[in-house]
Amino acid sequence: MPTDLPARADTSGEIRAFTGLRGVAAMYVVLYHYGLHDMVSGPFSTVLAHGYLAVDLFFMMSGFVMALTYRHLFAEGPTSRNTIVFLGKRIARIYPLYLLASLAALIVLSRDGAVQASGTQFFSNLFMVQAWGIAGSYDGPGWSISTEWAAYLIFPLLCSAGLFGRKAVALLCAAAAFGLLLLLAELPAEVTHVVRARGPLDFYDGQNYGPVVRCVIEFGLGMVCFRAARNRTVAGMMGRNWVSLALIATTGVLLAIPGSDIWVIPPTALLLISLAGDKNAVARTLGQPTFHWLGTISYSVYLFHTTVAAAIGPELHAAVTASGVRDGHAIEVTCLVAAVLAIATLTYRLIEKPGRRWLQGVFSLGRGARGGNPNLAAP
User: Which DSSP string corresponds to 118-180?
Assistant: First the structure.
C-alpha cells in the first residue's frame, strides 16, 4: 500500500542526503571538465573520465524531487492554472542564475573570439530552448538546464502515467524508456552525436535530439523511482544501510570499467530510492554540513565552473608554467576549484536566493512557495 516517504531530516521537505549527493556529483563534473583524469592512470582515470554521467544522476534526481514536491498539483489531472503555477515556480528557481551564467559565458566567449553573432542562438539561449535541436549553449552546462525545461513542460503529462496511472503501466513505461536509452547508447556515434563525445550517453550538443531525449527519459525514470520509494515494503528493504553501500560500490566498479556507461544508470536510480528515507548511515553522512553546503551551492558550481576556467584558466596556466613547479596541472585544478567554490558561494547568496524570491513575487506564487524545497535546485 503506497504511503508517504519516511520522515526526513527536517521539516522543509528536503531530503538532505539528496542535497549532499548533488554536491558530490557537481564536484565530479567539475573535476571531469578540468581534466583530472589525465593526471592519473588505470581504473581511477576511467572513473574520472566517466564524470559526465553525473548529469544523468541530476536528471533522475530532478524527476524524483519534482514528483515529491509537485505531485499534489496534478493529482486530479493537469489544468492550465496548476501548470502555470508549477512552471512559474520552476522559472523562479532556475532562471536568475541561468541568465547570469549565460551572459557571463557570452562575455568571456566574445572576449576570446569564440562566438559568432547569431540571433537564433541568442534568443534560444535566452528562452532556454537551445538544446532542443536548435543551437549550442553559451554557458557549456546550460544545455542541461534547457533540456530540464523541456521535461518541466511535459511534467504534468508524465504525472498521469508515471505517478497516478496503474503500477504496471508505470513499470512498463520505465522499462521502455531504459530500452530506448540503451538503443541510443548502442547506435553509432556518427549517427547520434554532433560533436566529439566522451561516452555513448554523452549527449550535450543542442544541434540534435540526443540531449532532450536523454534528459526526458531519465527524468521519467526518477519519477518512477519516487513512486517506488513511496511503497512501505520497498522503502524498508531499499533503505537499509548495506543496500546503499552495495549500490555505491556497484556504481563505483561500473564507473571503473570502460564502456559500462549505460549500466551505471540502474544502480544510480536505485540509490535514489535507497537514500530517500534519509535515515541510514550513508544518508546521514551525505547530510553532514560539508556535503550539504556543497549541495546548496551546487547549481552555481555547475553553471559557472566552465566559464571560470575559460576566464582565468589561460593566465593561470601561463603563470604556473612560468614558475616551473612540479605537478603544475594539479595546482591549476586546485586554484580553479577554489575560485569556483568562492564564486558559487557569492552567486548563491547574491543572485540565486534573492532572484528566486523576487521572481516568486512577480509570479505571485504565494507565501508557501517562497521558502522552497532545497532539493529543487538544478541541475
Answer: -HHHHHHHHTT-TTTTT---SSTTHHHHHHHHHHHHHHHHHHHHHTSS-HHHHHHHHHHHHHH
Judged by DSSP in three states, 377 sits in coil
Nearest to residue 96, comparing CAs of 356, 373, 364? Answer: 356
Q: Which residues contact 260 (CB under 8 A, 6 or more apart)?
A: 254
Rounded alpha-carbon distances, angstroms, from residue 190 to 4, 8, 89, 195, 196: 45, 45, 38, 9, 9
* pTM for this predicted structure: 0.92
**Cα–Cα nearest to 145, from 80, 105, 204:** 204
Q: Which amino acid is at 154?
A: I
Total domains in the fold of the chain: 1
Name the residue among 135, 211, 38 with its Cα closest to residue 201. 211
Residue 149 domain-assigned (yes or no): yes
According to DSSP, the residues that pair with 2 across neighbouring strands are 231
| Residue 4 belongs to some domain of the structure | no
Q: Which residues of the chain have pLDDT under 70?
A: 1-12, 365-374, 376-379
CB atoms within 10 A of CB 204: 23
- 127 within domain boundaries: yes
Closest Cα to residue 55, out of 271, 219, 207, 206?
219
pLDDT, tens digit, 9 for 90 and up, residues 121-152: 999 999 999 999 999 999 999 999 999 999 99
